[in-house]
């Protein structure tokens, strides 16, 4: 099934159309200028205005570029490079100074020439239907990250939702999707390469002072406030999904992986309802209750707990998958090992409130005294330890399990195998337990709607009720 033909739920109800009437929304014009346009074999000079995925062509016509095919073209009558935007047999070619226009539209359109623009360098993550590669731009030599989905029809709704959300996001503490490609049965999302590593590796081998923790949590909260203001929850916040732009500064942090993100809705109908990573997920999700945007704040609380103690409150070395979910479900948190200031402990407990309606909101957390506290203005720097140093501390198995319990991948293929395959196959409810329910029955109930498999146990899980 072709990605261009999917019913992509974007801003517009008629987003399958190419030519539409100019929408009444108050779009902020981001680009405008005079271009030579080719339409129905006629060349003319036109002033175009561009806002998000819209090209305003005239007072009565505009182009909805959402999921249009985008490609660079040449025309014998025009001595300039151009862009061809097409959908369902309709197209417009635009010639002139197109660099800015191309950089803007490639986020909203879909391209088909991935291997002409990028070359594969290495594979970072290998899963059944998803691979993450480090790639290099052939012209500029810039390194990027490519998230490659294998399309089999089953996950297209989830992938569409992820792309829809990523196209909306523009914040310094949230990863930016730059381009979308389709190559046969693969969909490829391109992101900036964040070289500083993830928070999981840093927690594993480094203890932080409160000033540093404040900087980290503040940035996470800034990103979450932005998401919640848009009505979006992430639902899979964990140290592995917090990345740094470089190894020198913690002031450049970004939230990644929006595969489980969704728009909050009152009817509580989502593609995935019970989802997240064991040890980080809010208890109301595990308890089949209706939940709010504040599920993300609980996950922030777990991250804060780990920054303070280097331990996850729900994971012990001897725990198996079911025991982790049981501890997460029961949510009995021991604060005795938390050594921090009164303000920090207050924020931690407010984030980890079991009652979601008493849990602090993202915006209130951002204005909490601990986050607003003063700290040294001197730039705080850190560097991830060298490989030899990491090897010396490899024996710390308990902490490693705490960090990686929700993200351990299936064994990777070799770099050669993974790249070769890409080249050869393609050009590129709502109530909690009643008080009278015996504990054994409650324990059984909390697993009854979960799908378990060896492959799934150690990955960020998406859990749904069994379907007959």
Outline the fold blueprint:
Blueprint: E1 19-20, E2 31-39, E3 42-51, E4 54-56, E5 62-64, E6 69-75, E7 78-87, E8 90-95, H1 99-105, H2 114-117, E9 118-126, E10 130-137, E11 143-150, H3 156-168, E12 177-183, E13 186-192, H4 199-205, H5 210-229, E14 232-233, E15 242-244, E16 253-255, E17 262-263, E18 274-276, H6 283-286, H7 295-309, H8 321-330, H9 342-351, H10 362-366, H11 369-372, H12 387-392, H13 397-404, H14 415-425, H15 439-448, H16 454-457, E19 461-463
Antiparallel strand pairs: 1-5, 2-3, 2-8, 3-4, 4-5, 6-7, 7-8, 9-10, 10-11, 11-13, 12-13, 14-17, 15-16, 18-19
Helix pairs in contact: 4-13, 5-7, 7-9
The rounded Rg comes to 24 Å
Strand content: 15-25%
CATH second-level architecture of the largest domain: Orthogonal Bundle
Tell me the quaternary state.
Answer: single chain
Let me know the CATH homologous superfamily of the largest domain: Transferase(Phosphotransferase) domain 1
Q: How many strands? A: 19
Low-confidence stretches: 1-14, 375-398, 402-468
Q: Helicity range of the residues?
A: 25-40%
Largest sheet: 8 strands, antiparallel
- What's the mean pLDDT score? 80
Task: Count the domains.
Answer: 3
Which CATH class of the largest domain applies here?
Mainly Alpha
How many DSSP helices?
16
CATH structural fold name of the largest domain: Transferase(Phosphotransferase), domain 1
What's the overall geometry?
Answer: elongated
The rounded distance between the terminal residues' Cα atoms is 25 Å
- The chain-level structural class is alpha+beta
Strand order of the largest sheet: 1-5-4-3-2-8-7-6
């Amino acid at each position: 099934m072709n990605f261009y033909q999917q019913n992509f739920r974007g801003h517009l109800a008629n987003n399958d159309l190419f030519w539409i009437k100019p929408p009444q929304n108050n779009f902020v014009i981001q680009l405008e200028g005079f271009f030579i346009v080719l339409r129905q074999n006629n060349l003319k000079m036109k002033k175009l205005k561009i806002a998000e995925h819209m090209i305003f062509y005239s007072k009565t016509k505009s182009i909805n570029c959402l999921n249009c095919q985008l490609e660079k073209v040449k025309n014998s009558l025009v001595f300039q490079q151009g862009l061809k935007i097409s959908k369902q047999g309709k197209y417009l070619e635009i010639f002139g100074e197109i660099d800015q226009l191309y950089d803007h539209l490639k986020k909203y359109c879909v391209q088909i020439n991935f291997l002409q623009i990028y070359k594969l360098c290495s594979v970072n993550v290998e899963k059944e239907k998803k691979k993450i590669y480090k790639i290099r731009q052939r012209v500029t030599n810039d390194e990027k990250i490519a998230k490659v989905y294998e399309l089999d029809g089953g996950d297209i709704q989830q992938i569409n939702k992820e792309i829809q959300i990523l196209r909306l996001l523009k914040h310094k503490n949230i990863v930016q999707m730059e381009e979308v490609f389709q190559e046969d049965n693969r969909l490829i999302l391109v992101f900036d390469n964040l070289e500083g590593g993830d928070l999981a590796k840093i927690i594993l081998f480094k203890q932080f002072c409160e000033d540093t923790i404040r900087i980290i949590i503040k940035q996470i909260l800034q990103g979450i406030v932005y998401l919640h203001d848009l009505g979006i929850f992430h639902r899979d916040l964990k140290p592995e999904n917090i990345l740094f732009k470089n190894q020198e500064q913690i002031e450049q942090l970004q939230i990644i992986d929006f595969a489980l993100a969704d728009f909050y809705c009152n009817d509580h109908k989502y593609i995935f309802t019970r989802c997240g990573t064991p040890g980080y997920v809010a208890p109301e999700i595990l308890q089949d209750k209706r939940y709010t945007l504040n599920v993300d704040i609980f996950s922030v609380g777990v991250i804060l707990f780990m920054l303070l103690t280097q331990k996850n409150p729900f994971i012990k070395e001897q725990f198996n998958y079911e025991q982790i979910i049981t501890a997460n479900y029961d949510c009995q948190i021991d604060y005795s090992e938390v050594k921090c200031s009164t303000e920090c402990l207050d924020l931690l407990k407010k984030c980890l409130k079991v009652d979601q309606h008493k849990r602090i909101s993202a915006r209130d957390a951002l204005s909490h005294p601990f986050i607003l506290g003063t700290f040294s203005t001197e730039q705080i720097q850190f560097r991830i330890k060298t490989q030899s140093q990491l090897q010396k501390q490899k024996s710390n198995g308990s902490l490693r399990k705490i960090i990686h319990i929700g993200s351990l991948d299936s064994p990777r293929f070799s770099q050669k195998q993974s790249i070769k395959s890409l080249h050869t196959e393609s050009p590129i409810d709502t109530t909690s337990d009643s008080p009278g329910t015996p504990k054994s029955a409650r324990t059984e109930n909390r697993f009854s709607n979960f799908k378990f498999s060896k492959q799934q146990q150690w990955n960020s899980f998406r859990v749904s009720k069994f379907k007959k």
